[in-house]
Amino acid sequence: MVRLAPSLLSADFAHLARDVRALEAAGADALHLDVMDGHFVPNMTFGPPVIAALRPLTPLPLDAHLMITNAETTVEAYIAAGVNHITVHAEACTHLDRLLTFIKSRGCTAGVALNPSTPPDLLRYLPQVDLVLVMTVNPGFGGQSFLESQIEKITWVRSLRAEKGLSFDIQVDGGITQDNIGRVVAAGADIIVAGSAVFKGGISEIPNNMNRLRHG
Ligand code: DX5
Ligand code: ZN
Question: Is 192 close to ligand 1, i.e. is its CB under 6 Å away?
Answer without folding.
Answer: no
